[in-house]
Amino acid sequence: MESVDLKNRFEPSISTLSTTCRLRPNVLLCGTPGTGKTTHAQRLCKLHSLNHLPIGDIVQKNNCHEGKDEFWDAYIVDEEKLLEQLKTDVIYGGAVLDWHACSFFPVDWIDLVVVLCTNHTILWDRLVERKYNLQKIQENNEAEIMQIVLEEAITSFGSERVMVLTSDTLDQVEENVKQISKWIEQWKPDNSTKKQ
Predict the structure, then answer these.
(1) 38 is an annotated ligand-binding site residue
(2) Where is ATP annotated to bind (predicted)?
């Protein structure tokens, strides 16, 4: 008698990851380095029992990269390998992805994209505190001023899925978490009727 691999038989492919499988939403927090993505993600995950997916850590721990760019002190992400690694973490929802970019994530994986923005002088100080080199600080600051991440989010996901929040102070972080939480709570009832 032939054995059947049930795990692989019933595992949906990347192309079938849609909101019809998910019991909870997937949220992507993005923004220039230093805008508070990890802080927001940790608070949201604790509040709603969601799964925090810090993409930078996942890239490093699972070798989802093609090496390191020594000048920028950053990994060169292998997007295909990363998406394959993330697939099982996002399929049923309840994930908060934390990454500076968003264009390579499949649209049907993400229910809400939150772009965090920070005043460029505050951002500069945060990046100095992280000990970034001057060129990296300047490049990230320029990206923030020109709203590169916001433009990428709207182009990739459409403005109806993008929420833009300012993240200059801890009070703003708390307000942002409340606003995202309100959206998460509304997503549940809005989408539960679709699954019946």
Answers:
(1) yes
(2) 34, 36-39, 130
Tens digits of per-residue pLDDT, 12-63?
334 444 455 788 999 999 999 999 999 999 999 999 999 999 999 999 999 9
Report the candidate in 56, 25, 34, 54 with the shortest Cα–Cα distance to residue 42. 54
Residue 144 · residue 35 · CB < 8 Å: yes
CA distance 81 to 65: 8
pTM of the model: 0.85
Q: Is 36 annotated as a binding residue?
A: yes
Residue whose structure tokens are 């996002």: 90
User: Is 39 annotated as a binding-site member?
Assistant: yes
Question: How far from 98 is each of 25, 41, 51, 183, CA to CA, in Å?
Answer: 14, 7, 11, 17
Q: Kindly list the domain boundaries of the chain, sorted by start residue.
A: 28-179
CA-CA distance, 163 to 183, in Å (whole number)?
10
Q: For residue 193, what pLDDT is reported?
A: 46
What pLDDT score was predicted for residue 6? Answer: 32
Burial of 69 (C-beta count, 10 Å sphere; 0-12/13-18/19+): exposed
